[in-house]
Design goal:
This protein has helices spanning 2-26, 29-32, 76-89, 107-120, 149-152, 181-187, 214-238, 259-265, 274-285, 301-306, 337-340; strands at 42-48, 55-62, 69-70, 74-75, 93-102, 104-106, 138-147, 159-162, 167-169, 256-258, 270-271, 291-297, 333-335. It is an alpha/beta fold. It has one domain: 2-enoyl-CoA Hydratase, Chain A, domain 1. A hairpin with a 3-residue loop joins β3 (69-70) and β4. It starts with a helix and ends with a helix.
Length: 341
């Protein structure tokens, strides 16, 4: 009887939810406070209510920057794109704070987010970019860690605020591959490979290390150098007009920097915390006061019910307070080595 009652209650909630979704689909999204377009459904959450007309929108970039989906629904790039569109379409939003606490991650999503942020600040939208909104400034608030890809997405922004103890920098590219041929030989495994070209298995871990030619090493290194050059061009373009040190490229060698060191070299503009970033955003936007809001992915009954069919996989936490990255062999990363090792 109890089980039947529980099922009945769930069915009632499900019916009410479906009816609500149908009604919401008939109402313009601004009337019910979240995006009804394709992509993540967003709710506007007030972080600081200062009884103001204007708003400052906060967009977090936390953990590993990856193309993997979030809860099987959307990825980080799609979420940030949706959040930026909400900020662009709301005339009350005068500035955005990018709240970064990330060691970096995959090259492609880092680059996509960087372009989204750069386009958002343009007076006119780039082709296929954000809606026209006369360029709202983005101010970065760096947390404990904003290194490698975390700095890559920060560089195009109008102003960067870092804590004195923030770990940032780590400008560089990394790609790993594991050679397990020695282990295979010990257990008596012999690889049999059929390939269409001589370089098709150039990153295979089953090859003898002596079989890796200098030509192959040069090809991989040239690929790394090309992506590294793009990283430096993003930094140079983003920090143009700021007090970037003339010898900044000497420090773009993968080393990590403290917030204080980054300020001295011109990689950041100011030392401070999130509240300082809010004050800077108001100054740059030319407003006296603002409510601070955040667009969060909307969770409802259908999402909760979907969790019942998912298996929870145990994860290992690092001392940095975030999940460790799962590096894929042959994948390029903007990732701080302080997290990998």
């Amino acid at each position: 009887m109890i089980f039947a009652l529980v099922v009945l209650v769930l069915l009632i909630f499900s019916a009410l939810f479906n009816l609500t979704q149908f009604v919401h689909g008939l109402i313009p999204m601004k009337l019910h406070g979240y995006s009804s377009s394709a992509g993540p459904r967003l709710d506007e959450v007030v972080l600081q209510d200062n009884d103001a007309h204007n708003k400052i929108a906060v967009i977090p970039v936390e953990g590993i920057i990856t193309s993997a989906s979030i809860d099987g629904d959307y990825n980080l790039v799609e979420l940030i794109r949706a959040q930026l569109k909400e900020a662009a379409n709301d005339a009350k939003v005068k500035a955005v704070i990018l709240k970064v606490n990330s060691p970096g991650g995959e090259v492609l999503p880092s680059d996509e987010i960087s372009k989204l942020l750069a386009d958002f600040q343009l007076d006119e939208p780039a082709e296929g970019g954000m809606p026209a909104h006369k360029g709202k400034p983005i101010i970065v608030s760096m947390g404990s860690l904003a290194a490698s890809g975390g700095y890559y997405v920060s560089a195009p922004c109008k102003w960067i605020v870092a804590n004195e103890m923030t770990i940032t920098g780590s400008i560089g590219v990394i790609m790993e591959s594991y050679n397990y041929r020695g282990l295979m030989d010990k257990v008596g495994l012999q690889p049999v490979v059929f390939k269409s070209g001589k370089f098709k298995d150039m990153l295979s871990g089953s090859r003898e290390p002596t079989e890796i030619t200098q030509e192959e090493r040069d090809m991989v290194q040239n690929l790394i150098n090309e992506v590294y050059g793009k990283f430096k061009s993003v930094v140079a373009a983003g920090r143009k007009g700021h007090s970037l040190s003339p010898n900044w490229q000497d420090y773009a060698d993968g080393r990590v920097l403290s917030g204080k060191q980054a300020l001295d070299l011109g990689f950041v503009d100011e030392l401070g915390d999130f509240d300082d970033a809010v004050e800077r955003a108001k100054t740059i936007a030319g407003i006296a006061e603002a409510n601070v809001v955040e667009y969060r992915a909307r969770r409802d009954l259908s999402d909760m019910l979907g969790l019942f069919g998912k298996t929870q996989v145990p994860s290992i936490k690092l001392d940095l307070g975030m999940e460790g990255p799962k590096l894929e062999a042959g994948q390029l990363y903007f990732l701080s080595s302080t997290v990998v090792h």
